[in-house]
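Bench log. Compound arrived from synthesis this morning; before running ITC I wanted a structural hypothesis for how D-ribose sits in the protein. Inputs:
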Amino acid sequence: MIALGADHGGYALKEEIKKHLEERGIAYQDFGTYSPESVDYAHIAYKACRAVTAGECDKAILCCGTGIGISMAANKVKGIRAACCSDYFSAKYTRLHNDANALCLGGRVVGVGLALELVDVFLDTEFEGGRHQRRVDQITAIEEDTFEI
Ligand code: RB5
């Protein structure tokens, strides 16, 4: 189950992503927004990300105008590793190396065609583990303020 969320800047892209996930047979839960009316992105990021950290959804895909604001909000949710991506390499390697569990996209930055490629590689790439697990654990330690310097 994929958690989807967007503000007005990412609304149109989220709707395209929904169609794409339906074509791929991937289930999603849409946490809004549900129209192009102006809305703040933080509470949408929070609701979608809490569904991930609660185990109700596997990953989140979040869209705003740049992808940046919603990624900043997402990364404040404990247990979320959100990556704002606008290129294929980053969307792939944030799964391979960072075990990112949220992909953030800018509806005013990337076109639909590229965005759907980013969604696919993000969803289809597994975390490599190994030395990268240690680094992800260090990120978690920072989050929990238990990092040994
Ligand atoms: C909304 O105008 C815009 O600021 C928002 O979608 C996002 O780009 C913020 O980072």
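What the model suggests: The pocket of D-ribose is lined by residues 7, 9, 41, 64-66, 68-69 (CB under 6 Å). The longest helix spans residues 11-24.
ITC booked for Thursday regardless.
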